[in-house]
Predict the structure.
Amino acid sequence: MGLRAFADSVRREWPRPRKLQDGLAILLITAVAAGGLTAEWWLGRHYVSIWRLTRGVGDTMFYGGDGRPWFPLDEARRDVSLDQVSPFVVKAVIAVEDHRFYHHPGIDPVGLARASVRNLRRGGVVQGGSTLTQQLARTLFLSNERTWARKGKEAVLALMLEQVLTKDQILELYLNRIYLSGGVYGVEAMSKKLFVKRARDLTLPEAALVAGLIRAPSALSPWSNLDGALQRSRTVLERMREQGFISAEDERTALGAHVRITSSPGLADTRSGYVKEYLRQLFRDQMGGDHPPDWQVRTTFLPEVQAAAEQAVAGGLRRLGIPDLQAALVAIDPATGDTLALVGGRDFNTAPFNRAVRSRRQPGSAFKPFVYAAALERGLSPVTVLSDLSSISAGAYQEWAPRNAEGDAPDSQTLREALLESNNQAAVALQQRIGSGSVLKVAEGAGLHDLPNVPSLALGTGLVTPLELTAAYAIFPNGGYAVKPRAIVRILDDGGATAYENPLELRRVLSEPAAFQALTMLRDVVDMGTAASARSMGLRMPAGGKTGTTDEFKDAWFVGFSTSVVAGVWVGFDQPAPIGREAYGARIALPIWTEFMRRTARALPASEFQVPAGLREVELCRVSYLRPVESCPTYVEYFKEGDDVPSRLCPIHRGSFKQEARRAVNDLLSSLGRKLRGIFKW
């Protein structure tokens, strides 16, 4: 029999597969096998992690943008053995959280059933069914997401913990790792923060207060809600009496005792306190209040740049010498939105409120670049002329000195000239010309939300945080893209798997030509405008930016950039009040910004800004912004497609004989044209 005949015979005798049923069976077998392998891998990995707990628990570590370990999640952590914890604490925690702790294998069917019945009767979740072991499993290995999958993993891990560790080992780990509010983990650290004593020395009412925080540490923080914490402690004492841990007399005595606590959490981060607490809070917001060991939080911050920011703020405030004056500084990579440094105030220990991310203040003239950017996007050019400025009412506080002894403001200016001098009338006139909607569209796109649609919008009467305003400025050096500020890139669990990923978010707001035109105008602000003093203070790199000052000198700003960083500085009082006489942004905030840029010149090297395609380069007179004649100081202006390019010669400077003749002819023709228009109009 030939080979082909043999194959045909086999096909005839072999039963034909039922395609659908057999396909499903194969998929099911494959899925079961894959699931089994995955489960075996997951169980094996966590068994090793649990075994390691017998040698002690690690800590979640935050890494800088340079890839090096930076600081742990809990710098105040103080692990102690179980015999170094007051028996009152042990009994209080067991009574209120898991009174059958010593009688179940990790999960408590009785407690779970009782909690389910009570929740059904109350019509909501009023009691949880998790044991101490389950809580420890979640704290050490899982996120705080509320899903059935997580609850299942939690139960399996609890059973594994009970197999590997003794009950006392589990309880010891629990008491050392549980989050108790105020950024404090563990009963030893909380005892020192709250009562300035060791955990072994806590009294019954103090122990009840600490144990009561476990259920809702943020809501019941004694430093912000002492009444709520004390009310919860009464429940703890009641449970302790019901479980036979204390007598009724003990309960009455504890209820009558006066519990004395410290006035604040006693924050200890004297260095980089604002940024560390900011990152810790971001971590808690994403992963919950639990405290997993050996996780890695990959951040965007560069410790070297962060140190420079703190030094610049401290030095600037010291030079100003004004008591209680605060400052904030934010530095961002304009290409990615990665936050490189953040300072939230003068002193984290005395004033932990983070002004960089939470203080909403008026930006003043630091908002003007978005008005000009909107105009450029609408087809205007940097040398478009704004006229009749003297008829515009725009407030009393201007950021430039009048041109002549009489103090008369110019009646017309180009956009470029008006921005470098921070002319309020010009900004308001420009907003009126293009419409508030155009300005709000650009500002909103750049990340400045909920701004008021009012005539004074151009003068920065909305409210922004330093972080928001600094990130919004990234549209100028990065070619017109809005960036979302990013502080954490990813979070890795103890096995190296990604538990959280934070991808880049870029969105085009301005065309590249319009963004570059705005950039060149902001460079003029630094080179010859309201921020020109930065050059005399030692700034050498190519840079642009804008000063800002609010009414009565209550807020001083400077936001500026190079090719590698955009940095914003705000200075003011927490309760808005005048900083001082003539406390302009150029005098108050700019020196801090300049010092920061100088300190980070090596870590964040700046290069020359690259001219994008689609722009036409034209040489103009620096004074008149018209075509130059022989003696004009000149510069290169950039025009995008559709822009009006000046054709008139400069009337201010002396030109060659040919240029003077051409100018005379042009002036004569212009005069005749005006007369003819008047005649025909008549």
